[in-house]
Amino acid sequence: MDTKDVIYELRTKKGMTQDELAEKVFVTRQAVSRWENGETVPNTDTLKLLSGLFDVSINTLLGSPRQLICQCCGMPLEDEIIGRDKDGTLNEDYCKWCYADGTYTYSDMDDLIDVCVKNMSGEGFTEEQARTYMKQLLPSLDYWKRYEELSDDGQFDALKKQLIQEINDLHIEGMPKLEKLNALVGQYVNLEYRLPSGKSVKFLDDGTTYLGNQLESESGEDLCYGVLANMDFIMVCTYRAEGADPELLIYKKR
Ligand SMILES: [Zn+2]
After folding, report:
1. pLDDT tens digit sequence for 234-244
2. pLDDT, tens only, 108-148
3. Ligand 1 centroid to 76 CA: how many Å?
4. Residue 151: pLDDT band by 50, 70, 90 thresholds?
5. Has residue 153 got a pLDDT over 90?
6. Is a pLDDT exceeding 90 seen at residue 157?
7. Ligand 1 centroid vs 83 CA: distance in angstroms?
8. Could you give the 3-state DSSP secondary structure of residue 105?
């Protein structure tokens, strides 16, 4: 699809007139009309405004000339899984697992490879093949090439360590010791808890990236401990297979 069709489609899907769109991105109605006729393409600043307004990547606005790849984990990027800067704008270099609200979530390539291999197994790869593939792919990606420049001197790692310590210090009965926290996107871990009143409640934001992990109960029964945390809170729950019967054990502000 060309830029002209993309803009037309996004605008009409939002139910906006050319005038309304023009006003939102500080151009004239004629300018919008010229984009939609294919006479001109919005300039870089306007593309950024349109990206924010329609919540799509600039790559999508330009008719997807490139297949975007996360420059940390190598995953192909669709608009829904692109990471965001602190101000909410899309950062087309990263997926939202690797880059969340302006923070890089991986500082150790081997950690990332472990997570990716787990997600890739069962997709026609053996674990060995997946590992070999990732070991070859990751060093060629921009984040790992520029790691010295992009990394935050271990600040994020320090936060992870601190959280792991705090969570283990809660001494939750039956829960194995927490060794690691991974980046998890809210929508995949946002369980619904039932209140005594019968109402259901969720605690997380679908679009936000949290740190967390799943630990299998030491008692041998089919029970998992779900840990989630960030700068502001720690939350621990239990659930059965596939997230069934979730129960909140602790929700603690930091
Ligand atoms: Zn990624």
Report:
1. 999 999 988 88
2. 899 899 989 988 877 788 889 999 999 999 999 999 999 88
3. 9
4. confident
5. no
6. no
7. 8
8. coil
251 alpha carbon – ligand 1 mean position (Å): 28
Domains of the chain: 3-61 (1.10.260.40), 79-150 (no CATH), 157-253 (no CATH)
Over residues 6-27, the pLDDT tens digits come to 999 999 999 999 999 999 999 9
When computed from its CA atoms, the radius of gyration of the chain, rounded to whole angstroms, is: 22
CA of 95 to the centre of ligand 1 (A): 4
